Amino acid sequence: MKGKSNFYKGLKLLGAQKEQQLNGKIKDLLNRRELIEAVSDNARLQIPRINRMQETSERMSIIMNYPTKKDIASVAKLVIQLEEKIDSLEELVSTLVEDGGGNVRGNSSVSKKRNAFSSRSKKKKSSGESNEMVGRKKRAADFINNSLLLSSQLPEIDSLGQGNSNV
Question: Distance between CA 84 and CA 104 in Å, rounded?
Fold first, then answer.
């Protein structure tokens, strides 16, 4: 048994030494300028092939009707823009509600009016007040709908019909 353990220890030591030697040779090869230039030249030759493969992939995506990486990136940009517009609309609506409802912070006379309004809220509103409120709500809803429609428009497809309709 003791002979086998010495054999494995020696084998492990020899393997570690050979690994260090091999790593040193690899580092020396990678530090040679000729090798780096050859790899660089080869990479430059591959660029047109990669571009052709990307173009072919995009053409096939149109035929096969699946989204490409560019399609997904453009949709992601549109979603981010839409989220920003929704946030700005939410801020606008909240300021309109605060201003229109008399909900101004720090003004005690306004808060008294609000309390008086809430105590008589159970009573039926006059037709003029309800029509005004309905008009405000309708204008706000129309504004929001128009903004969402404008922001959700996708880029137009070129005249040759190229473009992915899957997204």
Answer: 26
